[in-house]
UniProtKB/TrEMBL annotation:
Native species: Planococcus rifietoensis
Keyword check for Magnesium: no
Transmembrane segments: 16-39, 51-74, 80-100, 145-166, 186-206
Protein name (database record): Methionine ABC transporter permease
Entry annotated with the keyword Aminoacyl-tRNA synthetase: no
Keywords: Cell membrane, Membrane, Transmembrane, Transmembrane helix, Transport
């Protein structure tokens, strides 16, 4: 059975859907966690050793589990959330659990690059912690944040392809079902080529946006 154009387009759409949806949900998790990892650390705005240590450990635990294992391990939770463990919607759940902590770390690293003098100047002007975070810290780190989130999206594209190993749909499922199991080298190379184009496109767009928002 040959793969037709409609199947390739459907697989591409499923990959884009999985990546986009999981990125949005992961960002809602990763952004506040990343900010908390910064502001609760020793010597920062809202220093709280207990909160920092708990977040640090939990994030490290999730980041230490390979995606393919995480995907299988949380199948019961996936069934509770979306009612099934197979398909594109089901793949989004483990993708969020995988990318959320990863984005938190990326955001943490970007925010830590901001010169402490900026924070000290904001404090001297009487700015509250919330104002410092959203009016000084994040704007100063915006260029780096854009690059960090670009890396996260690229990682999600790769992880979404791995989701095909357990019937997650998308280009990964197409490559495994037709390229690997049916020994169709053309399909395998085509899916790889599409993934490469996607990654290159996302990275180029991220680089462009980062340059646009970079403060002089």
């Amino acid at each position: 059975m040959q793969v037709d154009q409609s199947q390739i387009l459907e697989a591409l759409w499923e990959t884009l859907y999985m990546t986009g949806a999981s990125f949005v949900f992961s960002l809602f998790i990763g952004l506040p966690l990343g900010i908390l990892l910064v502001v609760t650390r020793k010597g920062h705005l809202l220093e709280n050793e207990a909160v920092f240590n708990v977040l640090n450990i939990v994030i490290n635990i999730f980041r230490s589990v390979p995606f393919i294992i995480l995907m299988v391990a949380i199948i019961p939770l996936t069934r509770i959330i979306v009612g099934t463990s197979i398909g594109t919607a089901a793949a989004i759940v483990p993708l969020v659990f995988y990318a959320g902590p990863y984005i938190a770390r990326l955001i943490e690293n970007s925010l830590l690059e901001v010169d402490k003098g900026v924070i000290e100047a904001a404090q001297a002007m009487g700015a509250s912690p919330g104002q410092i975070i959203f009016r000084f810290l994040i704007p100063e780190a915006l260029s780096s944040l854009v690059l960090a989130l670009t890396i996260a999206i690229v990682g999600l594209i790769g992880a979404s392809a791995m989701a095909g190993a357990i019937g997650g749909g998308g280009l990964g499922d197409l490559a495994i079902t037709y390229g690997y199991q049916r020994f169709d080298t053309v399909v395998m190379l085509l899916t790889v080529a599409i993934l490469v184009v996607l990654v290159q496109g996302v990275q180029s767009l991220g680089n462009l946006m980062s340059r646009r928002v970079r403060r002089s």
